[in-house]
Design brief:
Elements: H1 20-29, E1 34-38, E2 44-48, H2 49-65, E3 73-77, H3 82-93, E4 97-100, H4 107-117, E5 119-125, H5 129-135, E6 144-148, E7 163-165, H6 166-171, E8 187-192, E9 202-206, H7 207-218, E10 230-233, H8 240-243, H9 245-252, E11 255-258, H10 265-275, E12 279-282, H11 284-296, E13 306-309, H12 316-325, E14 329-335, E15 342-346, H13 357-364, E16 368-370, E17 375-379, E18 393-399, E19 421-429, E20 434-440, E21 445-447, E22 450-452, H14 454-462, E23 467-477, E24 481-490, H15 498-504, E25 517-520, H16 534-540
Parallel strand pairs: 1-11, 3-4, 3-5, 4-8, 5-6, 6-7, 10-11, 10-12, 12-13, 13-14, 24-25
Antiparallel strand pairs: 1-2, 8-9, 14-15, 15-16, 16-20, 17-18, 18-19, 19-20, 21-22, 23-24
Helix pairs in contact: 1-2, 1-9, 2-3, 7-9, 10-11
Length: about 550
């Protein structure tokens, strides 16, 4: 889009917004702040932002020696750790494009996105050696494979061609490297969607969008990251760049703690306590494991005071347990791969502080208020904008400087509608601007011409003391088109019947929203980012016959 130029232009320095500047700033102004990593090898690694900056420059020199040029794609298949952070900055800072790969994808999908991205180098953790051996023969463009480990952990034999040791690689180059300057709109990182249908599509972020997102997400009304925090990103660095924390945390100068592959409740709790973590971010399934471990062992946090929960809705039961029993403030956030990803954050306005606790919780359970840099609206099926009254729900649309304008290689054509990106979510927005997701457009249940939001039904179900997880899907109905079916996973050792669960909804919802039936399962199908795969549930129960009245 070309914009008109004023006859009187500003006279400020024209310094491009590049991610290399973030690490350079952290090393210069917060050089002694720590980066702590639990390595795949099992030990704890410690160094500073100054050390990270030095090693990232060595890696940038190594990439140059491999022939990696401006715009070339370099892939990673790695956990949250210091080497992965070095790659974040060395790859993008040198002008190449960092492509983070979700190892939880099917091998065929991994090979597909490596080929689609045309990656030339793949850097990976020791954990993923078997996975890389399985797909290497199908990855046509990759010229170099880099195993992110010490020399003594390199395999004696492997089917992977041109495999080099990460530590050997950076040791063979100096840190005499000056970060290049180039157009801030140049590509920075490439993340693929975790879509449930078709092949994943790439969201290609720019340096400008990434730096602005780091600024926006660190704001007090968003994640509120400061140099006094100790931040542990549970959300993986292979999932939408760990929600931007590898950028916003160094920008803020905070100590950063990486959990590696150990994301079970016990391992997380021990690391939180050992490193005095104050702030974290992750999806509900991870917090569920941590909460259960703590409650079973009657444990408390000594330093952990604030967490961001996103990826899927945080249930009232989870929020209440974290806030009331464990003393952790919950920030409910929302975003998506196409948004870098942050769009909203759930923090209270000043006028809300005098409200009773239950009224405050109702606000906090919404997905939150827009972060500066994101605008949003809700529209009906005809594209007409709907009022912000907290009850009208429609298709959620967004726009902003870190929202995509097109998918990588223009897959799927133009995704925008009159300059707005359709998120695929159904939502309400109240008079104060707080947005609440009621469903995904593809998951909403259409019963008798009216919509039933599944998230409310699921949240009520998981507030029952015997329910660990719940998912609600639409089942074909001869009269009403679709009716809700509730799929329940009980807590270990707990019992609850169909009748008890349906009775639990009394007085909490409109009667016509009441699920027609309940089925019990041992587990729910989860995707690579921890979300329930409702498409698989719909396939599993497509022949299910609802009881007749």
């Amino acid at each position: 889009m070309s914009l008109p130029q004023s006859p009187l232009m500003g006279q400020m320095m024209n310094q491009p917004l590049l991610v290399s500047g973030i690490l350079e700033f952290a090393a210069r102004h917060f050089g002694d702040s720590l980066i702590v990593s639990r390595r795949v090898e099992g030990d704890i690694h410690r160094y500073t932002y100054r050390d990270c900056h030095q090693r990232a420059r060595r890696l940038a020199n190594a990439l140059h020696g491999m022939g990696i040029a401006l715009g070339d794609r370099v892939a990673t298949l790695a956990w949250n750790g210091y080497r992965h952070l070095e790659a974040y900055y060395a790859v993008s800072g040198s002008g190449a494009v960092l492509h983070t790969i979700n190892p939880r994808l099917h091998p065929e999908q991994i090979a597909y996105i490596i080929n689609h991205a045309e990656d030339q180098v793949l850097m990976f953790d020791l954990t993923f050696l078997p996975a890389v051996e399985a797909v290497a023969a199908h990855c046509r463009q990759i010229k170099h494979y880099v195993l992110m480990c010490d020399r003594d952990r390199m395999p004696a034999e492997t089917r992977i061609p041109n495999l080099v040791c990460y530590e050997d690689l950076i040791a063979s180059h100096t840190d005499d490297y000056t970060w290049p300057l180039f157009d801030e709109n140049s590509a920075c990182t490439l993340c693929y969607t975790s879509g449930t249908t078709g092949n994943p599509k790439g969201a290609l972020y720019s340096h400008r969008s990434t730096v602005l997102h780091a600024y926006g997400s660190a704001l007090p009304n968003a994640l509120n990251v400061t140099s006094r925090d100790v931040v542990l990103p549970v959300v993986p660095m292979f999932h939408v760049n760990a929600w931007g924390l590898p950028y916003s945390v160094p920008l803020s100068g905070a100590k950063m703690v990486f959990p590696g592959a150990a994301l079970d409740g016990k391992s997380l709790y021990e690391l939180f306590e050992a490193e005095q973590v104050t702030f974290s971010a992750g999806v509900p399934t991870v917090w569920l494991g941590l909460i259960n471990f703590m409650l079973q062992n009657k444990l408390k946090f000594s330093s952990f005071r604030r967490t961001v929960i996103g990826g899927s809705a945080c249930s009232p039961a989870m929020m209440n347990t974290l806030m009331d029993e464990l003393g952790v403030e919950v920030i409910h956030a929302w975003g998506m791969t196409e948004m870098s990803p942050l769009g909203t954050a759930g923090v209270l306005l000043g006028k809300h502080l005098e409200l009773p606790q239950d009224e405050q919780r109702k606000i906090l359970l919404k997905q939150g208020h827009a972060v500066y840099g994101v605008d949003m609206k809700i529209v009906d099926d005809d594209g007409k904008e709907l009022p912000w009254d907290g009850s009208s729900y429609g298709h959620l649309m967004v726009k902003g400087p870190w929202v995509i304008a097109a998918y990588y290689k223009d897959e799927g054509g133009d995704p925008l509608q009159h300059g707005w990106f359709p998120t695929g979510d159904v939502a309400t927005i109240d008079a104060d601007g707080y947005m609440q997701i009621t469903d995904r457009s593809k998951d909403v249940i259409k019963s008798g011409g009216e919509w039933i939001g599944t998230i409310d039904l699921e949240n009520i179900a998981v507030s029952h003391p015997a329910v660990m997880q719940a998912a609600c899907i639409g089942i074909a109905h001869p009269k009403w088109d679709e009716r809700p079916l509730l799929v329940i996973v009980r807590k270990p050792g707990m019992e609850v019947s169909r009748e008890e669960l349906l009775a639990f909804y009394d007085g909490k919802i409109a009667k016509w929203w009441l699920p027609d039936d309940v089925v019990f399962a041992d587990a729910l199908p989860l995707g690579g980012t921890g979300k329930v795969q409702k498409n698989k549930l719909r396939e599993q129960y497509k022949e299910y016959k609802l009881p007749t009245a």
